[in-house]
Amino acid sequence: MREATGTKRTDTASRIICATPHAVFDAFVNPDALIAWLPPEGMTGHVHVFEPHQGGNYRLALYYDAADHSTPGKSSEHTDIVSGRFLEIVPDKRIVQAVDFESDDAAFAGTMIITWSWVEVPSGTKVTVVCEDVPYGIGKKDHDEGLKSTLENLANYLK
Length: 159
Fold this sequence. Notes:
Elements: E1 9-17, H1 21-29, H2 31-37, E2 43-50, E3 57-64, E4 79-90, E5 94-101, E6 112-121, E7 124-134, H3 140-157
Antiparallel strand pairs: 1-7, 2-3, 3-4, 4-5, 5-6, 6-7
């Protein structure tokens, strides 16, 4: 188990995607699309539950591709399972989610609020993700790399 730091933090990342705001929104609310781009590099995923409406729930499993990875999974050695709910959905603009990791490790406890927002810019759509109350068990460097990888995946998915 990891030592508590006593504080939670906010992590954020942004990227310009060569797609319309509507195409970005569709990539978030279609479960097959979402699971194709959401897992960061070195992971794959599976959607167990997906109800993309305000108040709807979702449950995703993310699996590490390699047996020898530097960061252990949160739910098991090779798996991260997240349960969440959609707090707000504004088509073509924003999705706000409350996310909890299924873990026996207190370092991953607590609800993280993830706000995905996007705005049209001359070269496409600027997508920003803000993660508030990040559990202290998630290393900042790992999380920043994961967020950047996910945004890169989204950009590639929407090419």
